[in-house]
Amino acid sequence: MSKSDLRKKIDDAVAVIRTKTSSAPAIGIILGTGLGGLAKEMEVDVAIDYAEITHFPVSTVESHHGRLLFGKLAGKPVVAMQGRFHYYEAYTLQQITFPVRVMKFLGVRSLLVSNAAGALNRKFRRGDLMIITDHINLLGDNPLIGPNDDTLGPRFPDMSEPYSRELIALAEECAQSLKIKVRKGVYAAMQGPSLETRAEYRFLQTIGADAVGMSTVPEDIVAVHMGMKVLGFSILTDECFPETLKPVSLEEVIAAANEAEPRMTAVMKEVVRRMKE
Ligand code: HPA
After folding, report:
1. Can you give the pLDDT at residue 168?
2. Closest protein CA for atom 7 of ligand 1
3. pTM of the model
4. How confident is the model at residue 59 (pLDDT cuts 50, 70, 90)?
5. Rounded percentage of the chain residues whose pLDDT exceeds 90
6. Could you give the C-alpha distances from 268 to 98, 111, 124, 147, 176, in angstroms and in order?
7. CB-based pocket (< 6 A), ligand 1
8. What sign does the dihedral 157-234-100-92 (CA atoms) show?
9. Which of 102, 92, 201 minimizes the C-alpha distance to 139?
10. Nearest CA to ligand 1 atom 6
């Protein structure tokens, strides 16, 4: 059987990476807006600019670096994406999720993802840390649209456990032992880049979302498609309560993310330390 175009692209990207490192980490990490601090905790052995990797998209958002980092975190080999891609930057979902596919072929079995999100659950506050238990895809698109390569995953992947129950339990244990408060909830993905209206926030609350953002869901779908386990964290950077909504600035979002980031970094690092693989 001949290789699919997608599989050829993955193989090309892996081949480039393999000229620079033979590392085969079992853990992959994607860092969100203002959340690059975990990279500082890493002992980085090799950093590869996305621009050097065939078929990798290149980041356009200034607050994002575009590098793939190989090294150790809490003594374990990891690969981390410093900087991620968003639908509102006009990438396709296939481009956005391409690095996840490459990570799988480098040996990654578990994916840790972080993002900045708005709080919809009225019990949650700006600065809270949330473990993602489930998601609602409101992107109006799906990264698996198009021909399916059955060697990568099934045509109709099951989504009954989009975020690993085992990893969620581990993250809760880690947070508890570090005395860091965590919330749990459902993440809704919107296209952006405009933030939502009051009416949209009310709608999102009604349909069961606890947080809203513009990322993570495509990466999760592709990871699940390939049989990877996913653990997702949201830092809640603003309160999206329709009745009391105030204007939000990117500066405020980034400031809240920076404030909460050390707590998230500590939990993620402890999760990596305690992970079985
Ligand atoms: N919507 C609202 N608030 C946010 C978002 C979003 O997508 N991301 C971070 N804060």
Report:
1. 98
2. 213
3. 0.96
4. low
5. 85
6. 23, 11, 20, 35, 13
7. 116-118, 190, 192, 195-196, 212-214, 237-238, 240, 253
8. positive
9. 92
10. 213
Count CB atoms within 10 A of the CB of residue 122. Answer: 12
What is the whole-number distance in angstroms between the Cα of residue 62 and the centre of ligand 1? Answer: 17
Question: Rounded to the nearest whole angstrom, what is the distance from the C-alpha of residue 151 to the centroid of ligand 1?
Answer: 36
Which ligand 1 atom lies nearest to the CA of residue 213?
7
Distance 217 CA to ligand 1 centre (A): 14
Tokens of 14: 């892996």
Q: How confident is the model at residue 62 (pLDDT cuts 50, 70, 90)?
A: low
Question: Domains of the chain (ranges plus CATH)?
Answer: 3-274 (3.40.50.1580)
Single-letter amino acid, residue 237: T
Compute the distance from residue 195 Cα to the ligand 1 centre, in Å.
6
